[in-house]
TrEMBL record:
Keywords tagged on the record: Hydrolase
Protein name according to UniProt: Phenylacetic acid degradation protein
CDD domains documented for this protein: PaaI_thioesterase (cd03443)
Family: Belongs to the thioesterase PaaI family.
Keyword Mitochondrion part of the UniProt annotation: no
Residue ranges of domain Thioesterase in the record: 52-122
Highest taxon, organism lineage: Bacteria
One Pfam family this sequence matches: 4HBT
UniProt GO molecular function: fatty acyl-CoA hydrolase activity
Amino acid sequence: MDKAVLQSALGEYFAPWVQALALQVESFDADSVTLRLPQSDSLSRVGGMLCGQAMMAAADTAMVLALINQFGEFRPCTTVQMSTSFLKPLSKQDALIQARVVRAGKTLAFGEIDLRGADDGKSASRASVTYALL
């Protein structure tokens, strides 16, 4: 796997509104992918806080890329469950979203996601997810 393949997957497999998040592949390793979500007024609430909907969309997207990384190719999948906890507001900084595959079987995959501030490194949101592999 390489960074260019993961980055190109964002344009190939995701809806235009997800592409509008302008996510960038920051890094990856054997079982995780980290994306950067640039700070944007269009994704922020009053006071410059990143909205929860953008956090959840970025987290879900990051996990699909982590699965591509895990399998070495895109496999059709769908989110079955996503449990998200918002720990603190994220304001006026990019977000880093690290998605880690906990287990990938034949029909289900499980993962954990940490969304943190790119400047302060503090977790703003955590999620656990289950995907059906189609």
